[in-house]
Design a protein that fits this description.
This protein is an alpha/beta fold. It has one domain: Spore Coat Polysaccharide Biosynthesis Protein SpsA, Chain A (Alpha-Beta Complex). Helix content is about 40%, strand content about 20%. The protein has a seven-stranded mixed sheet, with helices on both faces. The longest helix has 20 residues. The radius of gyration is 18 Å and the shape is globular. It holds the Pfam family Glycos_transf_2. GO terms for molecular function: undecaprenyl-phosphate 4-deoxy-4-formamido-L-arabinose transferase activity. It comes from Stenotrophomonas koreensis. This is Dolichol-phosphate mannosyltransferase. InterPro entries: Glyco_trans_2-like (IPR001173), Glycosyltransferase_2 (IPR050256), Nucleotide-diphossugar_trans (IPR029044).
Amino acid sequence: MPLPQLSVVVPIHNEKDNVAALLAEIAAVLRGRLEWEAVFVDDLSSDASLTVMQGLKAEYPELRILSHRSQCGQSTALHNGVRAARAAWVVTLDGDGQNDPADIPGLLAERERAAPSVRLFAGWRVNRRDSGSKRWASRWANAIRAWLLKDDTPDTGCGIKLFEREAFLALPYFDHMHRYLPALMQRAGWSTVSVPVNHRHRLNGVSKYTNWGRALVGVRDLLGVSWLIARSKRTQTVEY
């Protein structure tokens, strides 16, 4: 099998009713367009998510499944999926089906038009389909983050992103890092672009986060990322 041109990495935790439909949508968008693979990372689901995914391999040879031996969270699942990915560029999607795989071609088109310095194309949910309280909490969190980090990104929490694998793996890893990818990429010297994308209602299952839980860890992480940015130094080098 030739090396894929694109790896689609999807963290999964208790999404047994969503994984089949999501993979079918990914395949419908990418088959015949380019060589691709889907890396689904099961974060020790307590439902039948892993069994469902194993049953899909016969129909989707592009599917690869990684399974955690202990539950580690979304950032670790993403990081392990990207490390296992074989393509130079990676698209990430949330496993709940709220991100639309139909937006992947648009992200790829933005990459073709962008300068070489852009290594991250971040989805921007212009019409969010979450509850009012969740939208309100995200609006305040994004405002505080933008004020403190100056990352010029309206929506860092969107799960659909396109980035260069090598650039991602060079970033400092920590839990919840996926919420700060634009700021971390910029800290590393790369440019980022926000791309308007679709957002859908969750049809099955329940959210893994609460507003309070997200806020409590967010304060600590935000201060940590701010410290990383303040302590970073970059310069060009000349070899003789």
